[in-house]
Amino acid sequence: MSEPTGRSKRKGKQRSAIGEELFNLPNALTMGRVAVIPVVMWLLAASDPLASGEWSARQATFWATLLFFLASVTDFLDGWLARRLNLQSAFGRFMDPLADKLLVMAVLIELVDLERAPSWFVALLLSREIGITGLRAIATEEGIPLSSDRFGKWKTALQMTGLGGMMLHFPTATDFGFFAAVIDYHRVGFALMLGSMVFSLLSAGGYMLTFLRGAFGLQNERRGAS
After folding, report:
1. How many domains, in total, are found in the chain?
2. Model's pTM, two decimal places?
């Protein structure tokens, strides 16, 4: 029986390393965020009062929003765990922001289908998300670090909160303890989404500037080395 070559040994090590990355706790939370997307979309599809009745539609929006909120919490939890447990990985750095974008895009597309979000707004938002994802992929390939800035963090917080409000949709009597009122969650959510768009564009500009600085820096290094 022949001994395994050095190349086959390296491939075996790579496969086992990738397998460990896939099943560590932070990345499992990230993949769980992707797994709930079809369930959230199904619940949102059932939230049409004309098709399901108002009571059933309200129940569907509640459960869809709750599941979306729990998935959003894992977005912050998986990054914290990865740093805390020293489990940061290439797979996690790639998949974590992608999972967030997939969840947000799926919800937005379903909201357009339900006529609860304007198509121009969703098209603008998705164009930004896809563009930044592509930019991150190029930056990773070239070794240019693109870390999240304060605008990106504000964008994410406002976006997740605003989407939750738009998903709840129906005006609901809400008791805050010190006062009670009927809250139009859809309008509140859309106002927060408009705010997130401002931070989203500022964040995109910051990513682009960081990428260009890194790209010109690499170009100068290569010229100096040649």
Report:
1. 1
2. 0.77
